[in-house]
Amino acid sequence: MIDENWSDGMPAEQVLAEIRQLRTMDRPTHGGRLFAYVYDPAVPGLDALAAAAYAESAHVNGLDPTAFPSLLAMENALVAAAARLLGGGPGTSAPEVAGSVTSGGTESLILAVKTARDARPDITAPRIVVPASAHAAFAKAAHYLRVELDTVPIDPTTLRPAVADVAAAVRPETVLVACSAPSYAHGVVDPVEQIAEVAAAAGVRCHVDACFGGWTLPYLRRLGLPVPPFDLAVPGVTSISVDLHKYAYAPKGVSVLLHRDPQLRAPQYFAYADWPGYTMINPVISSTRSGGPIAAAYATLRHLGDDGYLALTRRTWTAVCTLADAVRATEGLRLVAEPESTVVCFTADDPTLDLFLLVDELTARGWHTQPQLRYADLPASVHLTVTAAVAPRVAEFGPALADAVAAARAAGPVELPSDLLAMAGSLTPEALTPELVAGLAEGLGLGGGAGAPDRMAVVNTLLDAAPAAVRERLLVEFVGLLQRPAW
After folding, report:
1. How many CA atoms lie within 13 A of 339 on its CB side?
2. Range of lowest pLDDT (123-137, 306-320, 339-353, 457-471)
3. What's the whole-model pTM score?
4. Where are the membrane-spanning stretches (predicted)?
């Protein structure tokens, strides 16, 4: 599909036509039928505004705020907006809140762990305590930063960690305790107030990962929902993160990491002067940063305003309730958790109803959902991230769900060959060579550079049967097969 002749330049319109053709392979980012990865408010003109703002600052470099004070001003405005929403700023219990703009939630969480680790140079083998439902970015942070990860199990009914278990997991080497508001998988808010109290009693920092829900929970509270305390208004919370490219509806990728005060933020910085070049000083992981995403986020927040976000949250919550009602009305399905944020998560109780086939049938009907594999005592489930764009289409989901359930039942559960199932359960990650995975991918219809097929039930069934470490290795090798140079 891509013209492999790179020796000559191409006219601009031809390049754009090539990109548009490539984009036809993607899931739809607008239209209210994609329940993961993108956040669409369905506000007319917002995309054009964000793109124009991005273009204005695309070549501005965030490396040096003295050279580009416009970017510094916009970053400070975004931090202030996030702080006001999340319990910080003048007149609050966190009046000196300090923050930074990052490229996304993963970078915010890595920096929260890095800051906590570097604040305790006396601890040579640092550890962090997180619920099992915490975002995988905490595991990534622990891996990158060589910090031990202590995972606290969650109750299979409440989907939250027990505060006593969190307290028991804290050791003298613990530098950070984390919790979610809400957890991504199920959309439930951890007992932040009690966990922060445990951390404070132990003299340990407490980070709240509100990357997913930090821009909606305050508005849901204003709409009358019983949102528990979760932000900087909770005394023991020392830092909190929120993604602006999620429910603030800014383009990818902008997140904000807040600390209760500048002293707590200080270890986040990296500085280096012991070389003949300029002294490097970075508040975040990147050095050179395009001002484009920051300007786009600034334009988005300024345009929508507080009242606009309240209206979008109201629309989103109405959609959540309608989707949840559709699940409740469908025989064989049940909600994994009663919605309390912007997530609808459901599973199948009927053994004749294959959840992965159901996902494929919904995809065939234009509804793109996110399957979640089994974990510990939790069944496989289907995750729906609900945005304001879903609201105009939400009435169509119930009939589509009923139709997809009927089709999945008629097709019957996926049955893998017994030898393949046995292999999935007995293989070690080390045994999964690139050659073995390539052969397996080809046998599942994933070979030949064709990418993932439209129907993934067989693949998801195989992954669901494999231990977590084998899943990880399978997917690493498979993605490696996909990410090859286009010669």
Report:
1. 25
2. 457-471
3. 0.95
4. none
